[in-house]
Request: fold
Amino acid sequence: MHSLDEAAIFKHLHEPSPRAFFLLFYTTQCNQCKIAHARLARIIQKNTFEVDFFTCNLDEAPAVAEYFGIRSVPVCMTYDKKGKQQRVEYALKSEAVYESMVLGINTHKGDPKSRLLGF
Reply:
């Protein structure tokens, strides 16, 4: 996972990207954010996705929080290769939910039997 600052987030949102991407928005002191980050790291370790994974610390990017209207964290968003938002999940979710978000934008679907939720 790569950390992005305000400028990089806005650039990524407004310029075409060759790959789909997953965004995790968090704050430094949020314990649920730390759990969400760990769950996402486990998903990344056990699978190969054609998806870029990014994080953004909203303590250092207040304009991003304002742009999206984020009032609580963690928040996860997925975008397809065309830059269209596919899914948004607020609050801490299960590992299965995060994996289903990634699978929804993954261009290489793989064997359906190997996927956690069968999407």
